[in-house]
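User: These chains co-purify. Model them together.
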Amino acid sequence: MTPLLEIEDLHAEIEGGRKILDGLSLTVNPGEVHAIMGPNGAGKSTLSYVLSGKPGYVITGGSIRLAGVELSELTPDARAALGLFLAFQYPLEIPGVSTMAFLHAAVNAQKKKRGEQEMTSPELLKRVREIGKSLDITAEMLRRPLNVGFSGGEKKRNETLQMLLLEPKLCVLDETDSGLDIDALKVVSAGVNALRAPERSMVVITHYQRLLDYIVPDVVHVLAAGRIVHTGGKELALELEATGYAQFQNEAA
Amino acid sequence: MAAAVHLMKTPAELALAETFAAAADRLPGTPDIAAGRAAAFAQFSARGLPHRRVEAWRYTDLRTLMRDAAPLAAPPDAAAKARAGGKGALFAAVAARRLYVVNGAFVPGLSDLSPEPGLAILSMAAALAQGDPLVAGHLGQVVPSDDAVLALNTALMGDGVVIHVAKGTALARPIHIVHVADLAAPAALFVRSLLVAEEEASVSLIETHEGPADIAYQVNGALEIVAGDGARVSRVKVTAEGSAAQHLASLSARVGAEAAFSEAGFVLGGALVRNQLAIRLDGADTVAHVCGASLLSGRQHADTTLVMEHAAPRCESREAFRAVLDGAARDVFQGRIAVRQAAQKTDARMMSRALLLSDTAEANAKPELEIFADDVQCGHGCTAGALDANQKFYLMARGIPATEAEALLIEAFVGEVVDQIEDETVRDALMGAIRAFLLARR
Amino acid sequence: MAAVQETIEQVRLIDVDQYKYGFETLVDTEKAPKGLSEDIIRFISAKKNEPDWMLQWRLDAYARWLTMQAPDWARVAYPPIDYQDLYYYAAPKKGGNGPKSLDEVDPEILKTYEKLGIPLREQEILAGVERPEGEPRKIAVDAVFDSVSVATTFKEELKAAGVIFMPISEALHEHPNLVKKYLGTVVPTTDNYFATLNSAVFSDGSFVYIPKGVRCPMELSTYFRINEKNTGQFERTLIIADEGSYVSYLEGCTAPMRDENQLHAAVVELVAMDDAEIKYSTVQNWYPGDAEGKGGIYNFVTKRGDCRGRNSKISWTQVETGSAITWKYPSCILRGDNSSGEFYSIAISNGRQQVDSGTKMIHLGKNTSSRIISKGISAGRSQNTYRGLVSAHRKATGARNFTNCDSLLIGDECGAHTVPYIETRNPLAQFEHEATTSKISEDMLFYAMQRGLSQEEAVALVVNGFVRDVLQQLPMEFAVEAQKLISISLEGSVG
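Assistant: Joint model of the three components:
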């Protein structure tokens, strides 16, 4: 079986500065949900940015393959078209760009790149409304500029809506639980769980175990000082909740 | 003290003097008007073309930029008039009363002059020649100014449109003045218009300016607007002159009490464009919205210079400007909120933002506050920079290619200003023009 | 200008302002003849026994000045200055020109500084404030009285650290190569009308050199006092922070109350090399004139810092409460990559004062950053203008500026104006500017008064809150001083 995501000995740094990822390796097979946990500053968010190709992060060694395709040289939109989706920890507010116009542009740009039939406006609207319903996203929210004036919970629900709409192969969830109350967490998790499928994988990045009660992982990794220092089953998350990260930080050092 | 510095006359200044000497006798107007022309030209002549040491022209050194002065344009021939009929297409979807000014001359034959109660339209040339009391009473009086470019217009004005909207009249349709330059060689157009909206009148005015590419024609336009108490007046202006044209325009507006005034200006074409706006809120409790955007590329230079004068209590004004700059384009925004001592409880906010898309573009901004009343809330903000890299990344992470992501963001950037225009069909037309600019970039 | 001799009491009678430093010191003074000419410049240069190159430098500047015109773009108005009706050099006879010790200084002058609260004896510290550790903080002082430096303290201790701190007239003899290397390299003699005049006739001022890697062990300060009437003060300050060094420098100014306007045209040049930092703080409290606008100092000053090295930093903090007219724009040229400039300003105007002040941040290097925080307060019938330029040149990729200017109006006969210039020639420069003008909040005043504060105390409280961001930038002693000054400056502004 070809792994869906294959990261080998990845080294990365912030442009002109600090080294963040230091020999990280990670393999995710189709259908699997992997959780990545770790202390603040371990490189969790950097991993999500490096995977999605954010400018300002430089890969200095190693490789990232998505379904066998090397990503490191690709632009963020090309990676998205290959099926990589990053749910942002802090979704951007973009004044003046309406949510619907944005969704339309994103869906069809990806479809076009993949040589698929583009969606018409009515088709898209119908689909967005269906998904929106399941996530408590009102038509009024869809009329607003992208994420502008949205509460933390609304932004995360909007991220989930995009994920459900774009149907990616690999979902990278960056601290999706931050800023969410328990009700919003349940709504978002239900949305994410609805996407679980044999051919789709997820990487769930989180500092706290709480989220993993709702999105139950197959594998849990501990990220410290820029690499995976420990791997276990879902029970590892509970163990970490009890004992903290100190032991692994020492291990990394 | 700087005025003591005597400068050599430039070829353009010398040419303008010759033009005035040759044309003074045949320019339209009563003896009073003729005397006014002579005084205005003397005023211009004493100072010459404004240069960078004149604070209001700091970033647009007309003395350097205006190398020569073209001869006055001849009246349009039949063919030119016929061609002009198809212009102003940007707002074709707007059900407006269209008036045509071709090569600086009002063309009644082409214009929609169907009668409407409370509305009077006549040519400026005719009004000057007849000594029309409306024109005589307002010309140069609306917001007095010592600006040299406006003085030049007063000296050499040929024609234009005079619009009078009677007390309490709400016009059924917007008025669209289609300004067309139809020229095969460089020429100068001096256009003067006047809009008087009496008390409680309501009028919406659109002006478009267009002309041939690659011909260095020169437009000097002036519009004076008087809005009475309780009047609602709006103007949308699109400057889409030809690629070699120079376009200098002065708006003077005086607004009465409890009125609503709005002004929106868009610069899409022209080698050198200066829009100077002097708006005076003369009556209490008036609301004014002024906005604009310049979309520039190549070596275009656009200058928007605004003075929003609060002269009466409790008025509110909002000013919002955007510049999108590609190539070696240069944008200037000077905006002054001036609050006189009587204008207590003024609420004024101004925001100007420039977006630089290339390494060689240049943005200059001077947002001023000049406050003489203490009980006020005034503020301005100003930003300049490139597109937000995080926003662009967010869009790209959703699969939208770089150029499309940029286009979306630029559209949103300018859209914030366009959204302030009430009329939806006008908004749509402007967004169409913005998309065309973005398409041309690719 | 009228030469009416007024006693302090008489001045007080006609003066509603609360200027505390308006007394006059009666000392024997040696003056140059009135007026300005090549001969006067030769006289000044000879008095200071200057090398030939310095005299030639002055004469070149003078020749240039004769061809220039006073700038007229600022929002200030004053009758033309008769430059032939001024004295360009005035020095106390006793102990003028580089006294060897305090014993040589005229006791009257020592008393003056005592009254002004300036410690000239090294065991003294500024009253009232102690460092957290309980250690008194040392501040070295260069005291400039009219055209000459009368005393410089802590010279020996500073010398041990390698720091040079002395009057510039002395530095011309002791460190001629350093002076020659840097003088006029930040503010050229041709820069502007008043800077060029200063270059021709400058009398004294401070010279500071911090060697590589040295953190100056104490605050350095210069205290300027104009005493003589009809005398202009033209000091020149030059501070060089060599690689990796740090210095904090304070400047204070006062003058007697006089009916005539007096001219103060100073030049300050700062040079920061790689990784160096200069913090320059000013409390300017020149005599502002009386309530009717009679008298007061014309403060026409050119201050500029050159961030010449990589990662260098220059920070200007000013509290401006004095002067009839203020015309000054302490600026930073951000030449070195990653260099940064700051400008924190409080400008308070009352009576008939006119202020046109601000800064220039010229971004030339990559990743340069600047920050401007300006708080203007106008009361009485004063006019207070912020004027500032932020520019990014073609190569200033990654330049950043944030500007915030707020103005507060107290009373309905004053004016507050904001005139920023924002010029960008690099798409990767990010500039943000915001400004507000508002009235002092009546709700806040009421709240404070309901809790028992008088109206004036309430105003001072609100104003101090308004200027807090800037006050925090000042060294602690200065902050306390400045806070008092703000309250005094606004007395009589309400009710």
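Confidence is low (pLDDT under 50) at residues 1-5 of chain B.
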